[in-house]
Amino acid sequence: MAGWRYQAVDASGRALTGMVEATSETAARAMVRDLGLLPTQVSAQPRAGTKAPGLSLPGFGGRVSARSLAAATRQLSTMIGSDIRIEEAVRIVGQEHENQPIGPILMEVASSIVEGQSFAAALERHPRVFPEYFRASIAAGEQSGRLSEVLAHLTDFVAAREKAGRKIQLALLYPALLAGVSLLMITLLLVYVVPDIVKVFVSRGAALPLLTRALIGLSGAVQSFGLPLLVFMALLGFGWNRWLAVPANARAFARFRLNTPPFRGFTRQLNAARFAGSLATLVRSDVPLVDALRAAAAVTPNAYVRERALYATQRVREGASLRRALSEAEVFPRMLLAVVASGEQSGRLGPGLERAAADLEQDLEQLVTALVALVEPAVLLVMGGVVLLMVLAILMPIINLNNLAGL
Question: In DSSP terms, which residues pair with 7 in a beta bridge?
């Protein structure tokens, strides 16, 4: 079925817009009338996940952000907790976000629910928008009759995860901008400033110091081979991405980052925090442990950690305790293993995992802060040192010329 955007008026004459899913324009108009509205215009819209003709710029539309998912989840939790029917709540939230990528998707979900599908089954049609842990939690909430509580847990988790990701991005933004601007300035100096200064030195016939000759050579290399070098780097990046597209290569590189300094500490902390947070949300939502482990593994960023978490899932399915299974995976910190062992003994695995996830996230934030505090001065020192060498390479011949003139 296709998506149809409608413009309609209600009984009070208020103008409304929205999306419905139907096989034809006639069926779409009938669905709008069933909502108690009078359709004034109905037009076909591309389905979510398909591309309309024209340009599609990366990062500008078409991709549901974590912030949009968190906002939609919070609104659904509020309305379903207020005893509003699921399909009506999803439709209202979809209309609220109609100008964002998630809006049409929620309208499709609402149409699927009206057709008789469960909420979880409707979400299954959009796996790239709703992660596996999200869909598994919704399914468990529907089965247990605690959907509003599950949505409340999901709201907190999605919002916390989005906030943590945004903090990391913002923390690394300044060093990246600083390095990029510094490289651009150095390149411009080498291409446009150094050649003019070289002409002055050559015309005077002065003997040039080693540092100046090295700078002239570097400037010539940038002018002669700069564009081919950029093309080579682009091809190298493309080849690297194709190499990583092979699952075995991706796992090997993920294992390298997990076990090799300086990536080891950050990679282990990040993956442990994501895994523990997802597993805590699923366990608190009464998802069966094996299903919860599989869903939590699916959203773990590192491919090797994901593989070992799936191994732990298989061990739990075979009858092993969760603590033993995670210990055999050999990728999770001892603190998490101790919390899991305590939670299994006390029967409070969910709250224990939540506390462990909070501690891991706090440690991760402190680690990111420390890394940024080291990266910023390192970038300043490196770039400042390069600029200083360039200035010295230019000034040394000028000083020598002045000395010769004085003699």
Answer: 17, 41
CATH number, span 66-159: 1.20.81.30
Radius of gyration (Cα) for the chain, nearest Å?
A: 29
Query: Which residue's structure tokens are 């003699």?
Result: 407
Out of 2.140.10.10, 3.30.420.10, 1.20.81.30, 1.20.1250.20, select the CATH number for domain 256-362.
1.20.81.30
pLDDT for residue 47: 46
> Residue 144 is which amino acid?
S
Out of 174-183, 226-235, 297-306, the most confident range is 226-235
Token pair 């081979």: residue? 225
Q: Look at residue 373 and tell me whether its pLDDT is greater than 50.
A: yes
Q: What residues contact 28, with CB distance under 8 A and at least 6 apart?
A: 4, 6, 20, 22, 39, 42
Closest CA to 306 of 267, 340, 275, 327: 275
Cα–Cα distance, 290 to 256 (Å, whole number) = 28
Arithmetic mean of pLDDT, 313-324: 89
- Rounded Cα–Cα distance for residues 144 and 62 (Å): 34
Residue 22 vs residues 104, 118, 319: alpha-carbon distances, Å = 13, 18, 47
Kindly state the tokens that stand for 380: 């300043």
- How much is the pLDDT for 273? 85
Helix (H) or strand (E) holding 58: none
The pTM of this model reads 0.63
SS3 content of the chain, % helix, strand, coil (to 5): 75, 5, 20
Read off the amino acid at residue 147.
L
What is the per-residue pLDDT across 35-71, written as a single tens digit (0 to 9) for each?
Answer: 777 777 777 765 444 433 333 333 333 467 778 888 8
Distances (CA, A) of 151 to 80, 221, 300, 350: 9, 59, 21, 16
- What is the longest distance spanned by two Cα atoms in the chain? 99
